[in-house]
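Deliverable D4.2, example record:
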Amino acid sequence: MKLSTIVVNGREQAAIAASGGLVPLGTVNAAAGTVWSTELFELIRLGELEPLTEWYNAEGAGKLKELDAIPYPEAKYGPLYRQPRKIWGIGMNYVKDEPELAAVDPDEEPVSFMKPDTTIIGPGEAIRLPQGAGTITAEAELGIIIGKHCKNIAEEDVYDVIAGYTTAIDVTAADIHARHPRFLTRAKSFDTFFSFGPQFITKDEFPDPLAFCVETALNGRTAHRNTTFYMRFRPYSAVAFHSQVMTLLPGDIILTGTPGSAVIRGGDTIECRIGGFEPLLNPVRN
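Output generated by the structure prediction step:
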């Protein structure tokens, strides 16, 4: 099941992707007599996502065809939600090929950082370049959305606590980080430095998280491409590792690293492309 957050009558609410467009959850509730939460974060937080997915797979996909939908070209997207408890990122996570992957030290640990929710913007919203910050880079990433409260979880049990996946763009003030590695969090934390959406896709549609192809594209051209198979810390491993550090909560976001970053300037458009998802695009403004 694919969901988005769209603006309807001035309010952001969740909508399910159907053949004719996006059907808001409010429309679904009115037609089906259901009481699903109409915000994606609440669907995840309250544990409603799994029964909604079951309904969609059993009968809902067919019923959506009978309901009024907002055509995709007319939809105004917001970020999937605006106030996750945590946004957790991993740096330097991809290798080039299998020999390099085989050479990864099994005792190596992720390079991790956190971002505040004030960095969040949605699809189509502008990344604003902070004055005087120097070189700014942006990178496409696969985002993992946590679906259940968990702590100290084993890697083999991670599937049960994932809600699904999304496309994301992480932005960095590269010159600030270059001055000292301890400045990483500051370099990642400017307003508008994180975008995610326009689609959230439930985990049942991706039984193999090592088959994602992730691309960073700048102004319509692919700058970097790699697959999640070539991650040092693969999706389930990343979730398990970070659950050892802190309790993970529904709606928490784990960014899994990038195949490569691109320097962005005013007037550019940065894009995250992942197979199976609608692309995520953000313009860049001074």
